[in-house]
Structure formats: C-alpha cells, structure tokens
Amino acid sequence: MASKNSSNGDLQTTTKPPPLPSPLRFSKFFQSNMRILVTGGAGFIGSHLVDRLMENEKNEVIVADNYFTGSKDNLKKWIGHPRFELIRHDVTEPLLVEVDQIYHLACPASPIFYKYNPVKTIKTNVIGTLNMLGLAKRVGARILLTSTSEVYGDPLVHPQPESYWGNVNPIGVRSCYDEGKRVAETLMFDYHRQHGIEIRIARIFNTYGPRMNIDDGRVVSNFIAQALRGEPLTVQLPGTQTRSFCYVSDMVDGLIRLMEGENTGPINIGNPGEFTMLELAETVKELINPEVEIKKVENTPDDPRQRKPDITKAKELLGWEPKVKLRDGLPLMEEDFRLRLGVAKKN
Ligand SMILES: NC(=O)c1ccc[n+]([C@@H]2O[C@H](COP(=O)([O-])OP(=O)(O)OC[C@H]3O[C@@H](n4cnc5c(N)ncnc54)[C@H](O)[C@@H]3O)[C@@H](O)[C@H]2O)c1
C-alpha cells in the first residue's frame, strides 16, 4: 500500500503498486532515454511544451493530435527531426505507443471551439482521458492531465485554492468542458487509487502567448487582433469581471516541474495578477493601438465573474511562480499576431 498527500489535503491511498515502466527506460544507452507523448501537442500550449521538451537531447517526443484546433505549422521546426514524431490521431480512439511519460492536453480550450461540438468535447475529455490512462497503465507511464480553472465554475471562494470544490452548472452550455474536465480528474484519481498509475493534475488558469488561434473568442487574442485591425475592443458586460493571465513560457515551466516532481496535484498553475476586462482592454489599447475605441457588448451565459489562482501549493511544492508580467508578455504576442495577420508596425 502506498499513500501520498494530495495537494488538496486528502490522503490518497493506492491499493496497488504502480505498473513497471518499460525496460527501455533503463536500458537505452545510445538512444534518448525518455519517450514522451504529448496529446494536443499541435495546439497553443502543447507546441510550446514540445519546443521545451525537444531542447533536452535525451527526450524523444511523440505528438498525437487530430488538428481540430491545432496545426502542423506550430510544430514545423521539428517535423523531420530524428527525435520527433507527429501522428494524426483522435484521442477518443485508443493509441498504442511505447512511452515513459504522457502529457495529456488534447481538448479544445476556447469556448468557440468546445461549444461547436459539445458532445465531441465531452467525449474527448472522458473517453480520451480513459484511453490515455489505459495506455499509461499498459506501459507504466506517468501521466499529466491539463485540467482547468473552469472546474471551479463561477467560484464562491476567491482566490481559488485547490481544496475548493467549485460551483459548476452541470447542464449549461459550458458544461461539456467544465464537467468533462471534472470527470477527467476523477478518472485520473480512480486509476491512481485502483491501478497505482502515477498521475499529475495541473489546473491551468488563463494562458496567453504566441500561436494562440486568432479570433478564437479568448479575450487576450480577441483584443490583440481587434487592436491590430483597428476595430473596437469588445468588452463583455459588465467589464468588471476579472481574469488572471499567465504567459505561456511560465505555464510550460510549471507543467514540466509538476511532471518531474513528486506530487499528484491537483495544483493550480496560473498568474495571480488580477485584471478586470476593462483594465485589460485599456492596456492593449495603450500598448498596441491607442486609436481604437472600447465597446461594451452582451455577455455569454455562465461567464464567471472572478477568476484568480491561489498558487501557494505551486510555490511550496514545485518552487514555481510566474515571471513574465502582462505588460512584457503582450508585446511578444503582438509580434506573432502581426506576422500572421500581415499588419506591419507603424513607426
Ligand atoms: N489556454 C488556456 O488558457 C487553458 C486554460 C485552462 C486549461 N487549458 C487546457 O490546456 C490544454 C491545451 O490548451 P490550448 O490552449 O493549447 O488549446 P488548443 O486548442 O490550442 O490545443 C488543444 C489541442 O488538442 C487537439 N485536440 C482537440 N481534440 C482532440 C482529440 N479529440 N484528439 C486529439 N487531439 C485533439 C487540438 O487539435 C489542439 O491541437 C487543454 O487541455 C485545455 O483544456 C488551457
């Protein structure tokens, strides 16, 4: 019997020892010694994670992605690299590969995409996570799930610690994502307790940076695209709702620390710096295009009023905290969006 303290304070007891990892992990002297699967690796966070993992010459990286919201373009610098492999694969189908670690990111993250086919979204979260856990069990791999701050729903506790169970609408238009991720977390812990699988759960808060889909309905990408096109910045009413934004390099650093560390999580990874939507619009306007106007528009149902991570656990258990400030991160994203939108910088 092995037991571990989960980060929300409950004692997690596993009834079985973890399955043995592949013998290759210990016997490959001339090859890379860590094979890592990244599901959803052609997406925004996934492709930055792949960049970081590939920097380590001991890593071999396999990406499995169905290109629903991701793109080969995000990985073009690695295609053809001997330590890299890209597979078109939908995680709702089983996948048989020999790996030591699985970063399970596959899932559309933006409301526009996850609401487009909610049944597929929940299947991706539930069946996709089951398939990846099955794989982890078969090959003895450690698996990390990218869960979300949406598991807290419209929180009644502020900021949100991992011990907070959330305030989630089970039948709303966002539930395919929120409840899907909650079930995915449950499956992770059930496999951990029942089969001894080594699990890691990251609860990701809003993340931004280059390679986000333009016009994906997420607020930072929307504002930057609107500012570059000279269109009004559309702030959803009332405008006082808050979000916190984590730059993608900080996020990737947190995910790798969690995977490499000893704690199952769930652990919040996000930037606690809190901004109202109006403040964000003002900052984008000031930094990118002072000539655009700010316009208030109707809100979408179940939009949470406040979101801010309590990152005490990440600091204590992972020695992690975000380094990039919003004012430094936005210009890095602006450069990437200018290139993709073909908008040159005015001198
Ligand atoms: N970006 C954020 O602010 C944020 C916040 C909270 C949680 N997350 C989580 O982080 C992960 C990555 O998010 P992202 O922002 O990079 O999103 P993204 O949409 O850019 O990336 C998701 C990737 O998963 C792929 N995918 C989707 N469904 C799939 C399926 N059924 N089979 C195989 N591949 C599939 C997509 O093609 C895409 O490449 C997601 O799990 C998301 O829920 C992100």
From TrEMBL:
Record-listed E.C. numbers:
4.1.1.35
Where does the record place the region Disordered?
1-23
Keyword Cytoplasm recorded: yes
Q: Name one Pfam family in it.
A: GDP_Man_Dehyd
Where are the annotated coiled coils located?
none
User: Cofactors per UniProt?
Assistant: NAD(+)
Q: In which pathway does it act?
A: Nucleotide-sugar biosynthesis; UDP-alpha-D-xylose biosynthesis; UDP-alpha-D-xylose from UDP-alpha-D-glucuronate: step 1/1
GO BP terms in the entry: D-xylose metabolic process; UDP-D-xylose biosynthetic process
Q: Which Gene3D superfamilies match?
A: NAD(P)-binding Rossmann-like Domain
Catalysed conversion reaction = UDP-alpha-D-glucuronate + H(+) = UDP-alpha-D-xylose + CO2
What this chain does, per the entry, is described as: Catalyzes the NAD-dependent decarboxylation of UDP-glucuronic acid to UDP-xylose. Necessary for the biosynthesis of the core tetrasaccharide in glycosaminoglycan biosynthesis.
- Protein name as catalogued: UDP-glucuronate decarboxylase
> To which species is this protein native?
Quercus lobata (Valley oak)
